[in-house]
Design brief:
globular
Length: 91
């Protein structure tokens, strides 16, 4: 079972990167950007950005965070969402 704290931390880190769903980023790129963000964010600016986005842009936040969670599940845990399986995304 995946820990919710780990999933949220990794998803939030991806949220704070410049990667976009339309970029169709490769797994290695996502992994590298997330780990870089986690290492560079010693002051917690990322958590602040995520909280601000959730408060100010609820629908965009929800859409981006859903994508971030799906990508984290795929990249870090090897789990594909049902939608990714449908469109034939490679594991």
């Amino acid at each position: 079972m995946i820990g919710e704290e780990a999933l949220m931390a990794l998803s939030s880190a991806l949220f704070c990167t410049s990667l976009q769903p339309t970029d169709l980023p490769e797994r290695d790129c996502v992994r590298r950007e997330v780990l870089h963000m986690l290492g560079a964010d010693a002051t917690g600016r990322c958590k602040t950005r995520v909280a601000q986005a959730a408060a100010k842009h609820t629908l965009r936040y929800a859409s981006r965070m859903a994508w971030c969670r799906q990508m984290v599940l795929l990249v870090f845990f090897g789990l594909a969402s049902p939608r990714q399986k449908e469109v034939g995304a490679s594991p």
